[in-house]
Design goal:
heterodimer; A: mainly alpha; three-stranded antiparallel beta sheet; two-stranded antiparallel ribbon; 4% strand; disordered N terminus; B: alpha+beta; Creatine Amidinohydrolase; 2 domains; four-stranded antiparallel beta sheet; Znf_C2H2_sf (chain A); ZN622/Rei1/Reh1_Znf-C2H2 (chain A); Zinc finger protein (chain A)
Chain lengths: 374, 550
C-alpha cells in the first residue's frame, strides 16, 4: 500500500478510492478481501475504509470467533463432540490403564519416566492445536492482503494466540537443553531402542526412513549421527530445507509432511551421504546407452517406461521358420469373397416388382378393416 | 494372420525363382523323374497282380500307400540337405470309373476295394522339389486275367481315346509356342501365337468327335513354384493363366444347339471374361492369354463319354463323403475324405493337445501341398522290401489318434479336406424343369471352385446348390484322365515333358468306334507329324523313369 501512495499511478479502484501504479497491481488488488469488503460497503451505500482499519476489523473478528466458537453466526449453540475432553472412565478403561502402568514399570527404565519426557509429550500435544491454528490464520491473511501490508498484520495478529506460543516456547527451551543426539533413540519421536539396528528398524517401520544401498553401507553410525545432527541440532529438514524454530516444530514438520527420508535422487544429494558408503568399483556393470534405451552386457535392452505402450504390444509369435511355400501362397492369395457374376435381370421383371411394391403399400392403407381370413 | 512379405521377396519368390535356369530345370527334371518312376512302379504292381497273377492283388488303399512310400523314399534321397522343402505334391489317388479325383482311402477306410475287370483306373500323383512340381495322371484299363484278351470296347474306350489324343495334342500345341514358325496351315490364325482359345477349341473338337464331354475341372494351366494348383478353391490365385472347363461351357454348347436360342444374343452372350472384375492379373481364369516360352504347364484333360446316356444333358461333379446322404441315399460308396491341405491364411489357438501336435507337425514337416494322415505316422515311408502287411497294420493303429486331432483342424478350417468328386450326368430336361428359388445368389461354400466359376450355369441361372439337389436324378458316368506337366524351355526351344509320355503312360489297349473327323482331324494329323519329325519337327523330350535299384 505504501507503494500505492508513493507512486500514485493511473489505475484506480473506485470502491476503495485508491490509485494503483500498474495494471497488474490493480488486478491483484481486485482479488483482495479488503477490496471485496469495500465493494459490499459501496453497495450498502457506505464509504470505503482504509486498509489498516480493515485489518483491525479482521483481527477483531477473529478474536470474537475464538471466543464465540460454540455459537454460530446467528448466535445459536453449536454442539460439538469434545475430542480433547475426557469422558468418564469406565471400568474397562481403568483396567486397561492399570495393566499399561504395570507394563511400563516393568520394561521401561527410569530415564523414560523422567519429567522432561512427559513434559515434552504434553507440550507437543498442546502445541499441535496452536500451530495448526496459526498456520490457518497465516493462510487467510496471505490471501487477504497484498504484500506490503504484511508488516501491519504482524503487528496486529499475535494477540490471538500469544498465550499458547508463550507456553510453547517455555517447554521447547527446556527441552532443547536436554535432548542430545543419541543414536539408539529415534530422531523423530524419541522412542528408545536397544541398539542402532533396532532404531533403524523402528524409524523404517514407524516413519518410513529408508536407508538406500544398505549392501554398500560402510558407516551406519556415521550416517545416523549425520541424520540426528541434522534433525535435532540443526533442526533442518533434508528433503525441503525447512528449518524448524525448535525441536517440536521440526519433528512436527518431518512427521506431518512425511519428510523422514534421506533424499537420494540427484547426484548432489547422493554426494552428501557418499562418505558413509563404500562402493566397490568391480561391482559396476558397463552398459551402453542407446537412443532407444540402455543395453545390458548380456544383450538385453532396458527400455524407457515412456515407450511401454509400444513394448507391450502382443504380437502372435511364430515359433517356426516360414518356408518359401507358405510365403508364396500368402503372396498370391486374393480375398476370398464370393464374386457373384453380374446377372442382369430383364427390364420387364423389374417393372413388375415395382408395381407389386406399390400395391403392397396401398394394401396397408385400407379404409375399412377387412378380415383377410374370411 | 496373414504373412507379410516384402516387395523384394515378392519379386524373388514370384519372378526370379520361376526363371528356368539349369538349376531350376534340374529340380523340375528330377521331380518329373520321381513321378515317372512311381507311376511305373504302380503300373507294374497292378499288372503283376491283376493281369499276370504273380501275387495277391493289393487293395486301393494299399496301392496308394505303397506309391506314396515309393515316392517319399526317392525324394528323401534327392537333394539331401540342399533344399528346405521337398515332398509329395499330390498323394497317390486311384480313381476308378466314375470317380474323377481325390479317392485315396486310408488303410482303415470301409469303402476300400479291389479292381474288377473292365474298370478304368486313373492313377494320379505328384511331387515337388523346392516347390518345383511335377504332377501326373494316367488312366489304365483292368483286363480280365489271362493272356487271351482283346481291347476294351464301349464308352470308356471313347473317353480314354479322347483324353489321350487331346492331351497329346495340347502338349504339341504348347511345344508349337516355342517355334511359332512351324505352326501348320490348319492351325494358323495369322497371329503366330498359341492362345488359350486355340487350346479350348481343339480340345472341344476332339471331345466332340469322340462323342465325349470335357469334364469340369479339366484345365490347361500355367504353374509356378509352389503354385501348382494344389489349393485351388481354397485360395484364389492371382495371375491365374489357363483354360478351365466348367459346366458353363457345356451349357453354352447345349444352348447353341437349341433352335430357339440359336442366333439370339440374349442368353448366349453371357461371358465371364467381360465382367469388369476380370483383368489380366485377376484370379478369374480367362481364355484370353498367350502361351509364352519359359513357362511350365500342366495339361489335365478329363473326358466323359456320352455313349450310354439318353438325350442331351450335362456332366457335373458330385462331392462324396462319409456323412452326406447317409440316411436317405441308396448309394453305398461313401468314402471319407483323406487328403487334406493346410490353409496357410488361417491361424487359430487349438484346444486339443493332439490337434496342436498335429498342426505343428503339418506346419513343420510338410509344405503347402496336400497330405494324408498316413504321411505323418512314424512308419512312413515304409520299407518296401520288409513285411508290408505288418507295416500297414502299424500305420492303421497310428492313424486313429491323429484323426481325433484332425477333426478340430478341419472344424477350424486350418486344414481343408480335398473333396472326392464323382462324375454325374444330369439330363437337360431335369435342369430345365428346376426352379431356382434362391436366385443366383446361392453359393455352395462346401465345395469351393475357382473364382468366377461360382455359378455353374450362368445362362440358365442355376446355382451350384440347386445343381447339387438335381444330382438325385443323375446317372454315374466313367471318366478318363490324362495329366502331364511340361516345361517350355525357351533357351533350347524344346519342350521337356516331366511326366507322362510313351515311357510310362502308354495308353491301354482300347478300341473306340469313333475317330477324328472334320477340320480337327487335319490339325491333329499335322501336329502328330510335327512331333514325329526328328529333324524339322517339334523338340519334345521326355523324362525317363529311374532304373529300379532292387
Amino acid at each position: 500500500m505504501s507503494l500505492t501512495f508513493n507512486q500514485p499511478g493511473n489505475f484506480t479502484c473506485n470502491s476503495c478510492q485508491i490509485r494503483l501504479p500498474t495494471a497488474d497491481v490493480q488486478r491483484i488488488h481486485m482479488k483482495t478481501e479488503w477490496h471485496r469488503y469495500n465493494l459490499k460497503r459501496r453497495v450498502a451505500g457506505l464509504g470505503p475504509i482504509d486498509s489498516v482499519v480493515f485489518q483491525s476489523k479482521v483481527a477483531l473478528q477473529q478474536r470474537q470467533e475464538a471466543i464465540n466458537s460454540d455459537q454460530d453466526e446467528f448466535g445459536f449453540h453449536i454442539h460439538r463432540r469434545h475430542r480433547t475432553g475426557r469422558r468418564q472412565p469406565t471400568k474397562k478403561d481403568l483396567k486397561r490403564r492399570t495393566r499399561r502402568d504395570i507394563l511400563a514399570n516393568s520394561s521401561v527404565d527410569r530415564r523414560a519416566q523422567s519429567p522432561a519426557a512427559s513434559v515434552v509429550s504434553r507440550a507437543s500435544e498442546f502445541s499441535l492445536g496452536s500451530i495448526h491454528s496459526e498456520a490457518q490464520s497465516e493462510c487467510t491473511i496471505d490471501d487477504l492482503i497484498s504484500e506490503p501490508t504484511v508488516s501491519d498484520y504482524d503487528y496486529l495478529s499475535p494477540a490471538s494466540d500469544s498465550e499458547t506460543s508463550d507456553s510453547e516456547t517455555d517447554y521447547t527451551e527446556e527441552e532443547q537443553e536436554e535432548e542430545p543426539v543419541v543414536l539408539t533413540n529415534c530422531f523423530y519421536c524419541s522412542v528408545q531402542s536397544t541398539d542402532e539396528e533396532a532404531n533403524v528398524a523402528h524409524m523404517f517401520t514407524a516413519h518410513g526412513l529408508f536407508i538406500p544401498e544398505q549392501d554398500h553401507l560402510a558407516d551406519l553410525s556415521g550416517l545416523l549421527q549425520y541424520l540426528g545432527d541434522k534433525a535435532i541440532i540443526d533442526k533442518e529438514c533434508l528433503k525441503c530445507r525447512f528449518v524448524g524454530k525448535n525441536l517440536v516444530s521440526i519433528r512436527q514438520h518431518l512427521q506431518s509432511k512425511g519428510h523422514c527420508v534421506i533424499p537420494y535422487e540427484t547426484r548432489a544429494e547422493r554426494q552428501v551421504i557418499e562418505r558413509f558408503y563404500d562402493f566397490d568399483e568391480s561391482d559396476y556393470t558397463t552398459v551402453k546407452v542407446l537412443p532407444s534405451g540402455i543395453e545390458l552386457p548380456d544383450g538385453r535392452i532396458l527400455g524407457s517406461r515412456s515407450f511401454a505402450r509400444y513394448y507391450r504390444q502382443n504380437f502372435p509369435r511364430r515359433d517356426r521358420e516360414v518356408g518359401d511355400g507358405e510365403r508364396t501362397m500368402s503372396l498370391v492369395v486374393k480375398d476370398r469373397e464370393f464374386h457373384a457374376p453380374s446377372y442382369h435381370r430383364p427390364v420387364v421383371e423389374a417393372q413388375r416388382e415395382k408395381l407389386s411394391l406399390r400395391q403392397l403399400r396401398k394394401g396397408n392403407n385400407l379404409a375399412h378393416f377387412r378380415d383377410p381370413l374370411n | 494372420m496373414e504373412l507379410s512379405v516384402s516387395d523384394k521377396d515378392k519379386s524373388i519368390l514370384l519372378e526370379k525363382k520361376n526363371v528356368l535356369n539349369p538349376n531350376v530345370l534340374d529340380k523340375y527334371r528330377l521331380a518329373g523323374q520321381i513321378t515317372q518312376t512311381c507311376l511305373a512302379y504302380l503300373t507294374e504292381l497292378i499288372n503283376d497282380s491283376y493281369h499276370l497273377g504273380k501275387h495277391e492283388p493289393y487293395s486301393i488303399a494299399e496301392l496308394c500307400l505303397l506309391g506314396d512310400s515309393h515316392m517319399k523314399v526317392a525324394l528323401d534321397n534327392a537333394y539331401k540337405n540342399q533344399v528346405r522343402e521337398k515332398g509329395i505334391a499330390q498323394p497317390v489317388t486311384i480313381d476308378v470309373n466314375d470317380v474323377v479325383v481325390g479317392y485315396s482311402p486310408e488303410v482303415d477306410d470301409e469303402t476300400n476295394f479291389k479292381f474288377k475287370a473292365g474298370d478304368i483306373v486313373t492313377i494320379n500323383l505328384g511331387c515337388h522339389i523346392d516347390g518345383y512340381t511335377s504332377n501326373l495322371s494316367h488312366t489304365l484299363v483292368i483286363y480280365p486275367p489271362g493272356a487271351s484278351v482283346g481291347p476294351l470296347l464301349g464308352s470308356s474306350a471313347d473317353a480314354i481315346c479322347a483324353s489321350y489324343i487331346a492331351s497329346e495334342t495340347v502338349i504339341a500345341l504348347l511345344a508349337l509356342s516355342l517355334t511359332p514358325e512351324k505352326i501348320p496351315q490348319s492351325l494358323a490364325d495369322g497371329s503366330g501365337l498359341i492362345r488359350g482359345s486355340t487350346i479350348r477349341q481343339i480340345v472341344d473338337s476332339i471331345a466332340e468327335s469322340f462323342n465325349c464331354v470335357v469334364v469340369p475341372t479339366s484345365k490347361v494351366r500355367r504353374i509356378r513354384r509352389f503354385l501348382a494348383g494344389q489349393a485351388e478353391g481354397i485360395v484364389a490365385e492371382r495371375d491365374f493363366k489357363g483354360v478351365v472347363w466348367s459346366e458353363a461351357d457345356q451349357e453354352l454348347r447345349l444352348l447353341k444347339k437349341s433352335p430357339k436360342y440359336n442366333g439370339s444374343q440374349e442368353l448366349a452372350t453371357y461371358d465371364k471374361t467381360k465382367s469388369a472384375r476380370v483383368t489380366a492379373s485377376s484370379a478369374v481364369p480367362t481364355d484370353d492369354f498367350v502361351v509364352s516360352p519359359g513357362e511350365v504347364y500342366t495339361v489335365d484333360i478329363k473326358m466323359a463319354p456320352l455313349q450310354e446316356t439318353e438325350g442331351p444333358g450335362l456332366i457335373t461333379l458330385q462331392a462324396v463323403d462319409n456323412v452326406t446322404g447317409a440316411n436317405h441315399s441308396k448309394e453305398a460308396f461313401r468314402p471319407r475324405p483323406s487328403i487334406f491341405v493346410r490353409d496357410v491364411a488361417i491361424s487359430h489357438q487349438l484346444k486339443l493337445k493332439t490337434s496342436r501336435k498335429l498342426l505343428s507337425t503339418v506346419d513343420n514337416k510338410l509344405s503347402v501341398y496336400p497330405f494324408k494322415l498316413a504321411h505323418l505316422t512314424s512308419g512312413f515311408p515304409f520299407d518296401l522290401s520288409g513285411d508290408i502287411e505288418q507295416q500297414l497294420r502299424s500305420i492303421q493303429q497310428e492313424i486313429k489318434p491323429a484323426r481325433l486331432g484332425l477333426v478340430e483342424l478341419v472344424n477350424r478350417h486350418l486344414v481343408v479336406a480335398k473333396p472326392i468328386l464323382r462324375a454325374r450326368f444330369v439330363p437337360l430336361q431335369v435342369i430345365l424343369n428346376a426352379s431356382t428359388s434362391t436366385g443366383v445368389n446361392g453359393y455352395d461354400a462346401e465345395n469351393p471352385v475357382l473364382p468366377g466359376l461360382e455359378l455353374p450355369l450362368p445362362r440358365l441361372g442355376l446355382t451350384s446348390l440347386k445343381l447339387k439337389s438335381l444330382l438325385k436324378a443323375s446317372k454315374e458316368i466313367p471318366v478318363a484322365r490324362e495329366l502331364s506337366t511340361v516345361v517350355l524351355n525357351g533357351d533350347n526351344n524344346e519342350l521337356i515333358r516331366l511326366s507322362g509320355g510313351l515311357s510310362t503312360s502308354k495308353p491301354s489297349w482300347v478300341h473306340s468306334k469313333f475317330q477324328l473327323s472334320g477340320a480337327v482331324a487335319q490339325s491333329v494329323n499335322d501336329l502328330v507329324q510335327l512331333t514325329q519329325d526328328q529333324r524339322f519337327g517339334l523338340k519334345i523330350k521326355e523324362c525317363q523313369p529311374m532304373k529300379s535299384s532292387n
